[in-house]
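user:
I keep going back and forth on a fold encoding question. Separate attempts, laid side by side, tell us more than any discussion would. Would you put together a sequence-and-structure record for a protein of your own picking? Write it directly below this note and I will take it from there.

assistant:
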Amino acid sequence: MSHDISSGSTSIIVSNEDSTTLVNVIVSTDAEKTTNHNNDNISIKESDEIDDLASKIKESTDNHITVKDLSIISSDVLKELYGTDKVLTIKYQDYNIIINGRDIINPINEINPELKIAIIDNGITVDYISECEMPGAITIILKNHQEHYKHLYFLGNNNEYTELGYNSDYRIKISSPGQYMLSTKNINGFKINIVWVLSILGILLLGFVIYIFTKKKYWLW
């Protein structure tokens, strides 16, 4: 007596030079029911790579570790860097991110290394978006740019740009999420310093009092 098999499942091992992945495949006579469950395996692979990096940092006798295109900088990785002289460099197409173990304050939070970079008039903007507090300062090195930027600004909550220190080497050291801008011009222009204004007014007033006092002495003579 024969039975028609309408569906079933099996496991297939897919391998290449870099990794081996176990793929679950559901087979059905109905084409719409044929499904390949591979998404979870991708997450597991990335997690394994991150765990391997934490182990690599821990075991490394070299203070400089370099990797490429890391999707997340996990707490485990930061814990291995924390309080050490080790420096992790993550290379991407348009920028590099450098994390110095001495710059980490709280290794609990992860770092999302994704940046949004846009060219604007007289400058370039770098958006670092994160819902969590940063665990410390990171250094961003921009690549493939020829302009000689002279000013670095941070856009605050009041939509005003605050100028930060910058050495004109395409390196930006940040410790807070937000928008940063490199510019060839001073966008704030000339700002009146209230201390200088009061000082000048005080000097003028003192000069006026001395002048009146001197004139009064002549009048009394």
Observations:
- The CA atoms of residues 59 and 111 lie 22 Å apart.
- Residues 11-15, 19-23, 28-45 have pLDDT under 50 and may be disordered.
